[in-house]
Specification:
Elements: H1 8-32, H2 37-63, H3 84-108, H4 112-136
Helix pairs in contact: 1-2, 1-3, 3-4
């Protein structure tokens, strides 16, 4: 029996998006220190979704006998995070990075379960990203093709 990670290009894409999900979880923690109370609930829900996807990827790797890469202790931010707008800009990057990673997975697998997870992740990144784009002043509010740069 073969699995979705038997193909090396799919495995590489899954490993890359796992790294993006790790970074998104970390970014959510950093951003929470700067976002106003009204944004804490949506941030917590988005962070939970990233943790759930990360955990699903870890489980997929372990089931395939692939050692999942652990999260780093910290991640470089594209610019310093000093206020709500810069925290939201960091979250935009995190959502965009996960969307790009999941799109790469979608392009490389025909596994139904992995494809469902990937489509849901790209849609979530576009949806959640609207809030962070608005708060950070990033345009457009919805990328024309989520998951591309």
């Amino acid at each position: 029996m073969t699995g979705p990670l038997d193909d090396s290009t799919t495995r590489s894409a899954v490993e890359a998006v796992l790294g993006a999900e790790h970074a998104a979880v970390w970014s959510s923690g950093l951003a929470s220190a700067y976002l106003p109370p009204d944004d804490q609930g949506p941030l917590a829900r988005a962070a939970l979704a990233h943790r759930e996807r990360r955990d699903a990827l870890v489980a997929l790797c372990e089931a395939a006998g692939v050692a999942p890469a652990p999260a780093a202790a910290a991640y470089a931010t594209p610019r310093p995070v000093t206020d709500a707008a810069s925290a939201a800009a960091l979250l935009v990057v995190a959502e965009d990075d996960t969307a790009v990673g999941w799109r790469a997975v979608l392009e490389r697998t025909d596994d139904p379960q992995l494809r469902r997870l990937g489509v849901a992740a790209v849609v979530s990144a576009a949806d959640v990203g609207v809030r962070w784009r608005r708060l950070s002043g990033t345009q457009p509010l919805v990328p024309p093709f989520p998951g591309t740069r």
